[in-house]
Amino acid sequence: NIELAFDDETCKRKKFNRSFISAQVFGFSVGENPLKRYVKQIEESNADSLDIIDEVEENYPVGVAIFVKRIKKHIDKKGNEMAFVGISDGNRDCDLTIFSSDWEELKEKFQIGCCYLVVAFKNRGTNLLFNTRARPKSKIVQLGM
Description:
Number of helices: 4
Helix content: 10-25%
C-alpha cells in the first residue's frame, strides 16, 4: 500500500492527475505523455522537441516543451542551493542545470510531473542550462496556466 500526504498549500496549487501523482510516487510519469494535453499550446508557442539539442551549437538558445521527471538539489561552492532537473519530452530525456541565482526564484515553480515551456541554452553535450543573465534570457512558462 502506498500512502501520499500533501500539505494544504500543495493541494491548493495542484491538479491531482495521474501524471502528477505517479511522478510523486515513482519519480516519473506513468502512462501517456503528459504533454499530449497541451498540444495546442505547444504548437502555438513553436516549441521544439528535445531532439533540437543535437542540431544546435553550444550556448545556443532552444525553446522546448518538457515535463519534469526529477529534481536533484545541490549545494554549490558558495553554499547556495542549485538544481539539476531531469526533464523529458516523452521521447527523450536530458538534464536542465539551474544555478543558485535562478533556482532561488524558480524552486517554487518547478514541480515534478508538471509541464512547461522552457527557453534554455545548450550546454556541453546534451544538457541544457537555464540562465536569466544571458541574452536572450532563459524563460519558463507552466503549461495549462
